[in-house]
Amino acid sequence: MMSRPAAVVLLSGGVDSATVAAQALADGFDVSALSFRYGQRHAAELDAATRVAHALGLARRLVLDIDLRPIGGSALTADLPVPTDRPTADMGSDIPVTYVPARNTIFLSLALAWAEVLGAQDIFIGANALDYSGYPDCRPEYLRAFETLANLATRAGVEGRRFTVHAPLLHLTKAEIVRRGTALGVDYAVTVSCYAPDADGAACGRCDACRLRRKGFEEAGLPDPTRYRT
User: Fold this and answer.
1) pLDDT digits over 3-41, tens only?
2) Topology classification of domain 6-220
3) Which of 82, 177, 201, 212 could form a disulfide with 44 if both were Cys (CB 3.0 to 4.6 A apart)?
4) What is the pTM of this model?
């Protein structure tokens, strides 16, 4: 019996990353999940990532501590208010204060390091270029550039073991993501998307992440299992 190819999946515990992990499994990869405790105010997502990993049967998971709070510059890592009640039509028109400087570059770089050690040539990320909040590091040109960097900056790349960065949700709407994950058996009740959940992990229902999530379930015609505060 042939062994499955190894892959590293960035797992935050939200809708997109849970769907990507399920997709990687369905595509036949042996998935190792990588999560980060980076000083984010919505640390409930780490508990959600643990639940997702268990639900999907991921035996290998690594949680790295990287404190980005001293750098600041984001409502997720500094004492800045999280925007609420923005019309979804306005999202993506600018780069919001919830953007964490260079976050995906930091995360992908560490995923690349772990992938090289594991002998994996595939890295999965839940980046999305349609229903997203204007983050520059979710664009397809960025992901192509990082893949080029990965193959220039590593021993594996120089020796001809090429890395591929997979973003299977890149061109899907949130509704299409929810439908795909549902078809793959993802239990979205265990996920957390909110930027400002309470101590028990209940979602605010008002931040950009909550509004995009709710919109996705509504447009998919599926019940939203999110536990909201109100």
Assistant:
1) 899 999 999 999 999 999 999 999 999 999 999 999 998
2) Rossmann fold (3.40.50)
3) 201
4) 0.95
